[in-house]
Amino acid sequence: MTLTEITMAEDQEKYIRQIELPEIGTLGQERIFNSKVLVVGAGGLGCPALQYLTSMGVGTIGIADFDRVSLSNLHRQILYSADDLDESKVDMAKKALHKLNPKCVINTHDVLLSKKNAATIIGGYDLVLDATDMIPARYLINDTCVALNKPFIYGAIYKYQGQVAVFNYQNGPTYRCLFPDEPKEKIQNCDQRGVLAVLPGIIGLMQASEAIKLITGFGEPLSGFVGLFDLANMQWDRIKISKKSTKKPDAPAITDSQKSTKI
Amino acid sequence: MNHKLHIKYFGQIAEITGKSFEIISVDSISIEELVKNLTESYPSLRDQEFKVAVDHEIKDKSSQISHDSEIALLPPFAGG
């Protein structure tokens, strides 16, 4: 056996439980190997999503976060341990993910996503997970993905409830079709309102599930809907969203090489 | 004619109303009028950004609700 054949045999065995699903198969697994996914925010939503995307075999993962690990993160941001306090989140996440799957190429972006860098960072990936905890970042990801023609998977939480959706997928609705303009009032996040650790775990894994669906093409993506999950009463609602012609966002400058129509 | 509206409140909206749902009876009403009525009952709603869904679909302010319906008031969430 050549080295390549040995590697292929190892991969076949490692991912066999996924490959034997007829909707995934060898082709689906190859698509997962060849995919490039950016997770913006390596916090409560991002950690579980990153963990599963890596273990499922996503070939290239980008992690964008400018934060440092703090003690109050540890109950829900499961990639980090007490040894990682005050260290860069992207570096500590990369360390944990590399152990999980050494073959995964992990790019770290230790910056605050801004109008200046968003197109360059997002341009290197097929799809984006919005796992941030700030409303302005959500609009920036939306507008950049619209300009670059890339789908993104939105996740957000408030106390015991979560929202999840696939936006800008095959010309489907975007976040601005749901909420056209940034709210004037500040919307509170986990740091201000508290969070039960399992909730971002559930919503983050819903985002990872939708990512795998877009990559492999199986199932029906949650596009054209926003999903609402309520942990307190275990209720799940799907609310239909229509595509709206929203005003052209103040988009960053885009080069052709950053645009993608792959997924 | 009287219609029963089963209204669900999500996120911060539920904290303002102090409940996660309620059932109200109204005559045929537009979403704009419904929001005005709710804002009279819960004045802090005035400062909130939210969308209104009727029977699991986001509708414009001008849409008319003319039968028993499930309504949802859906604010943006920030947390992650």
What is the fold-level CATH name, i.e. the topology of chain A?
Answer: Rossmann fold
Strand content of chain B: 25-35%
What number of structural domains do the residues of chain B give? 1
In percent, how helical is the residue content of chain B? 10-25%
Cα gyration radius of chain A (Å) = 18 Å
Intertermini distance of chain B: 44 Å
* Number of distinct helices of chain B: 2
SS class of chain B: alpha+beta
Q: Mean pLDDT of chain A, rounded to whole units?
A: 92
The level 1 CATH classification of chain B is Alpha Beta
Mean pLDDT across all amino acids of chain B? 95
Query: Biggest interface between protein chains, with counts per chain?
Result: A-B, 43 and 21 residues
> If strands are numbered along the chain, what order do they take across the biggest sheet of chain A?
3-2-1-4-5-6-7-8
Approximate shape of chain B: globular
**H-E order of chain B:** EHEEHEEE
Indicate the multimeric state: heterodimer
Characterize the overall form of chain A. Answer: globular
What's the Cα radius of gyration of chain B?
12 Å
Main sheet: strands, sense, barrel of chain B = 4 strands, mixed
Q: In what order do the strands lie side by side in the largest sheet of chain B?
A: 2-1-6-4
Low-confidence stretches of chain A: none
